[in-house]
C-alpha cells in the first residue's frame, strides 16, 4: 500500500465536509463524499475505501447505527472509522469508540493535527495489509501442508495396510491423537499357511513416530511373503530401525507367529504391555510378558530373541494393545483398563464381547476424548484355518519365459542347519515356473513340513509327544533351539525337480536326512483329530500331494505335486 488512500467522508454539514475534503486532497488522498449516513452506506465499497470519516450528529445513536452497518459490510477487513465532532461530548465519543471506532477529529479542523492522525492511521493500515498478505501466504502454505499430509497419510496407510486385516479371525482398533498414528498393526499370510502379526508402538506421536513404520512394514510384508521365519524377520527389522532411527526413538512391538497347521503360536514381546491369551476352559487369562527390549534399541549383535511358544484350541482369543490403552484415563481421571480386564478375567463366559466391549467402554467413559497417546488394539480369534487357503492367485511379473524343466539340490551340513533357513530361497526359484507360482502356498507348506520333519525328528531326534501339554509344547521348542545350537554333525539334503509343458507340470521334492529314520507306516494320518496338536504333518502332506514316497527306512521322503496350466 502507498501512503495515498481512499477516504469516505460522510457529514451532513456541507462546509465542514468540504473543508476536510480539501485537507485530505492536499495531503494526496482520494476523497468520496456522502451527505448522509444512508448515502455513505450506499457508496461504501470495502475493496476501494480504506478509511471512513463519519460525522457525529446530534443524534449520535444514528451515527453509531451507520458505523455498525458499515462494519457488517466488511466483516473480515480492517477499515477504521474516525468520528467527526464539533463539541467534545465525552459520553458520545466513548460510546462510539466502544463500537470499535478508531479515533475522532474535533471541529474546527486543524490541518497539522489531521495530518499527524492520518499518518498514524496510514501506518496501521499498511501494517494491517502486510499482516493480511502474510496471513494469506500462511493460509496457502497451510493448505499445501495439509495436502502433503493427506497424500503422505494415504501412502502410509497403503504401505502399512494389507487385506489380511480383513480376515474374520482378526479385530483391530486404531485411535490416533494426531494426523499420523505412531502405532501400527501389520498382518500377512505365510506361504505355508498361518499368519504373521505385528503390533508396534513407536516413540512419540504424529509424523515423527509414524515414519518409522514404513521400513518396518516393508521388511515385514516382503520377508513374510518370501517365507522367512519370525526369528529371521525380527533381527532384520531391528537392524534397519537401529540404523535409520535417532538414538531416542524405538519401537515397542509384539510379533505373533500363528502356525495353523500344528495349532500353535510363537509370541515375541519387546516392550509392549502383557499380551493376554483367553481360553474358554480357564477363567484367568495367560499373560505373555515382555521379555525383550524394543526394536531399534540394541545393535544386531546384541539383539534378543526370547519367545513364548504355546499351543491353542479353536476358540482361544489373543488380545494385544499398545501402552496408549494401558495409560488411558476416564473422565473422572481413573485408570480405564484394569477394571475392564478384571471383569473379563472373572467372567463365567470367558472373553465375551472382547475388543468390542473395550471399544464401547472407551467411548462411553470418555477415554478417546482425553487420550494423549495413540491407542491400538488387536484381537485374534485363534483357529486352525487362519491363512490355510490364502495364497495369492496372481503370477509374479517376470515368470513368463522362465525355465519349465530343471532340477537342483541343496545340501545343508550342521553349520548351515544352525544358521540358514533354505526354504525362502528354494521357494523363490520354484515359483519362477510358469503356472506354479499360484500354488506357492501349497508348495511352501509341503516343503516346510518335509524340512521341519527331517531337521527336528531326523537330525535332532526330537519327539512330538512332548507337545501333548501346554508346558510340553513350550519346552519342545526350547529343546529344539538348544539342540540346534549344539549341533555338530548331521545333514539335510533337498532335491528339487520340475517338469512342465504348456498344459501341465509336476514338482518333485525329495528330502533326505542323516537321522535314524522312523516307522512311517505306523503314523496315524488324520487331520480331523483336532484334540491332538501334533502328528498332523504327514496327514497334511498326503492331502496336498499326488503321491508321497518313503525310502531308506523313513530317512528319505519324496513328495509329488502336480498342476494344470491355465
Nutshell version of this structure?
By secondary structure, this protein is α+β, with helices and mostly antiparallel strands.
Q: How would you portray this structure in words?
A:
The chain is 37% helix and 22% strand. The protein has 566 residues and is α+β, with helices and mostly antiparallel strands. A five-stranded parallel sheet has the order 2-1-3-4-5, with helices on both faces. It has a five-stranded antiparallel sheet with strand order 6-15-14-11-12. A five-stranded antiparallel sheet has the order 7-8-9-10-13. The protein is elongated. The chain starts with 5 loop residues before the first strand and ends with a strand.
Amino acid at each position: 500500500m502507498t501512503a495515498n488512500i481512499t477516504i469516505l467522508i460522510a457529514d451532513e454539514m456541507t462546509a465542514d465536509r468540504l473543508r476536510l475534503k480539501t485537507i485530505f486532497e492536499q495531503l494526496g488522498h482520494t476523497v468520496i463524499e456522502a451527505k448522509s449516513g444512508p448515502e455513505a452506506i450506499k457508496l461504501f465499497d470495502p475493496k476501494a475505501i480504506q478509511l471512513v470519516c463519519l460525522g457525529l450528529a446530534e443524534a449520535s445513536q444514528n451515527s453509531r447505527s451507520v458505523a455498525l452497518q458499515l462494519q457488517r459490510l466488511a466483516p473480515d477487513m480492517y477499515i477504521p472509522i474516525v468520528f467527526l465532532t464539533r463539541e467534545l461530548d465525552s459520553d458520545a465519543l466513548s460510546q462510539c469508540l466502544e463500537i470499535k471506532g478508531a479515533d475522532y477529529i474535533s471541529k474546527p479542523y486543524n490541518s497539522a493535527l489531521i495530518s499527524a492522525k492520518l499518518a498514524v492511521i496510514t501506518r496501521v493500515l499498511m501494517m494491517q495489509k502486510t499482516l493480511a498478505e502474510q496471513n494469506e501466504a500462511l493460509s496457502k502454505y497451510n493448505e499445501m501442508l495439509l495436502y502433503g499430509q493427506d497424500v503422505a497419510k494415504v501412502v502410509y496407510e497403503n504401505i502399512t495396510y494389507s487385506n489380511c486385516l480383513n480376515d474374520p479371525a482378526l479385530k483391530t482398533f486404531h485411535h490416533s491423537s494426531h494426523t499420523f498414528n505412531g502405532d501400527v498393526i501389520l498382518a500377512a499370510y505365510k506361504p505355508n499357511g498361518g499368519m504373521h502379526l505385528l503390533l508396534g508402538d513407536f516413540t512419540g506421536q504424529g509424523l515423527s513416530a509414524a515414519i518409522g513404520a514404513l521400513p518396518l512394514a516393508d521388511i515385514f510384508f516382503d520377508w513374510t511373503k518370501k517365507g522367512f521365519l519370525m526369528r529371521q524377520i525380527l533381527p532384520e527389522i531391528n537392524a534397519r530401525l537401529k540404523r535409520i532411527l535417532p538414538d531416542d526413538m524405538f519401537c515397542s512391538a509384539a510379533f505373533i507367529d500363528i502356525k495353523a497347521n500344528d495349532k500353535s503360536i510363537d509370541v515375541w514381546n519387546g516392550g509392549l504391555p502383557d499380551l493376554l491369551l483367553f481360553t474358554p476352559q480357564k477363567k484367568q487369562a495367560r499373560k505373555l510378558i515382555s521379555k525383550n527390549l524394543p526394536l531399534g534399541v540394541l545393535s544386531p549383535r546384541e539383539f534378543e530373541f526370547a519367545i513364548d511358544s504355546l499351543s491353542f484350541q479353536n476358540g482361544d482369543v489373543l488380545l494385544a494393545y499398545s501402552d496408549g490403552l494401558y495409560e488411558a484415563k476416564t473422565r473422572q481421571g481413573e485408570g480405564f483398563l484394569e477394571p475392564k480386564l478384571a471383569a473379563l478375567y472373572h467372567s463365567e463366559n470367558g472373553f465375551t464381547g472382547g475388543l468390542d466391549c473395550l471399544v464401547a467402554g472407551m467411548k462411553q467413559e470418555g477415554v478417546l476424548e482425553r487420550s494423549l497417546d495413540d491407542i491400538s488394539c488387536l484381537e485374534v480369534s485363534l483357529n486352525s484355518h487362519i491363512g490355510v487357503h490364502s495364497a495369492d492367485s496372481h503370477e509374479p511379473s517376470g515368470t513368463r519365459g522362465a525355465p519349465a524343466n530343471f532340477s537342483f539340490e541343496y545340501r545343508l551340513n550342521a553349520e548351515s542347519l544352525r544358521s540358514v533357513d533354505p526354504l525362502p530361497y528354494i521357494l523363490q526359484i520354484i515359483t519362477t515356473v510358469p503356472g506354479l507360482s499360484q500354488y506357492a502356498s501349497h508348495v511352501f507348506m509341503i516343503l516346510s513340513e518335509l524340512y521341519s520333519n527331517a531337521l527336528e525328528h531326523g537330525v535332532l531326534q526330537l519327539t512330538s509327544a512332548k507337545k501333548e501339554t501346554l508346558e510340553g509344547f513350550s519346552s519342545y521348542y526350547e529343546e529344539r533351539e538348544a539342540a540346534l545350537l549344539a549341533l555338530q554333525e548331521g545333514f539335510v539334503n533337498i532335491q528339487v525337480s520340475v517338469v512342465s509343458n504348456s498344459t501341465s507340470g509336476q514338482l518333485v521334492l525329495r528330502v533326505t536326512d542323516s537321522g535314524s529314520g522312523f516307522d512311517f507306516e505306523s503314523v496315524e494320518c488324520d487331520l480331523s483329530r483336532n484334540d491332538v496338536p501334533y502328528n498332523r504333518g504327514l496327514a497334511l502332506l498326503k492331502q496336498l500331494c499326488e503321491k508321497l514316497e518313503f525310502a531308506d527306512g523313513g530317512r528319505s521322503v519324496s513328495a509329488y505335486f502336480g498342476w494344470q496350466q491355465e
